Predict the 3D structure of the following.
Amino acid sequence: MPDQHKIVIFEINSSQRDYLRSIIARLGYLPFCFEKETSCFDNLQSLEPELILFKPISLENAARFLHAVKIISPELPVILISNDDKIKKFIIRDCFKNVKRVNAPVKVFEIQKSIKKLLKKNNENANNNYNPAIIGNSPEIRAIKKIIPELGKSPEAILIQGEAGTGKELIARAIYHAGLEKESAFVKVNAKDLSLEIIEKELFGVYAGNVQSNNKNSNNQIKILNNRTILLDRIEKIPEQLQSKLLWLVEDGRQSRYWQDNQKPFTRIIATTDIEIGDLVEMGKFRKDLYYRLNVIQLDIPPLRERIDDISLLTDYFSYKYCIAYCKSCFEQSGRVKNIFYSYHWPGNIRELEEYVKDLVFRGDESWIYQKLCCEKDISPLPGFYPQANDIYALAEVEKLKNHFHDLSNLSLKSICSEFVSRAEKKMMKKALESTNWNRKKAAGILDISYKSLLNKIKHYELRL
């Protein structure tokens, strides 16, 4: 009989929960069953189980649960009971190393085999299951997650571009964890703090013992930097006088006088920027050749306002994170709060969302958020914008529609409605854009659609300034 390992079962259906309990007990494990997600999370730390058995009801449910578990215990194995291929793809794409999916209905031998395999794997890989959590399931984030394993194995320089607060460093760390050797190091350097000494010695490798330092820890630091990934944060801030030196070392760093031939380190650079570096190149403020060397592979991180679908997952993730940090019972934010979050433009992106959720959890009161965000939205309709009811037909250009549908016998009602709506929509969008001097954010707010939807419709209707 196996040892009395504790296994948590989370299942909302009582009969299924009892069935799983009987299987786990029959296999010689000690089952702890939960009906509610929040109760399960509240007890995970005190129970310290060896494994979780969970039957998700949807992809979003599975994503939220797994991300919350990783906050509480990053190395805790999880078995998901599901026939959903989307969940299978999600597990692979998000690189969950200690999560396994089994098909329903549950077969005893399959559960037994999966439990033994995960427990053995977890013991062998203790303290080596860290995986930065990139929260989101929007198409843009799915594409980034999909390419991260390949980028982790590539030595090429990577440029991650996106607004402040979009999670560029998190993605850089995910790339590092996806492929490099255990002895490698991740070194973050703020580009504005670069000096000649940092560039040549600290970043591009000094053989320990060749350089004297007053810093007690410097030799130890240098020793672990033989293979490394360097994160150059905000490369637009690199002083112009140092750009040529950085370029030389990136292109031909092997010539550094500090290295011996048999100790040349592997260095992979990941650079991040909040702005479009190409604009600085055109202005002559950033070396074109350095830009090309750092921009071998480019990742564009979308702002939060263009991935509205991820707001719910992010909100739940931060709620659980700070409930645990502040020793409070886990809970989800209300639908009303999430609706306000959906309509807000998030100039500070994910970082701003995290701060608001942290504040909500700390205060334990959501009344303040309504007035604060609703006042800051700045998307009130402009005076005289919305047409009166008797102008709706003018919006759809009914007279032109009559000519368009001159032979109604060959057309369906669906086609007529579609053409009517398209014409009205195009004219409303044009009016909203003109009313805001083509400020797309304000126009999207006026039309009550997402920023991304507005951009797609502008392209679809071929609207021009």
Notes: The CA atoms of residues 19 and 106 lie 10 Å apart.
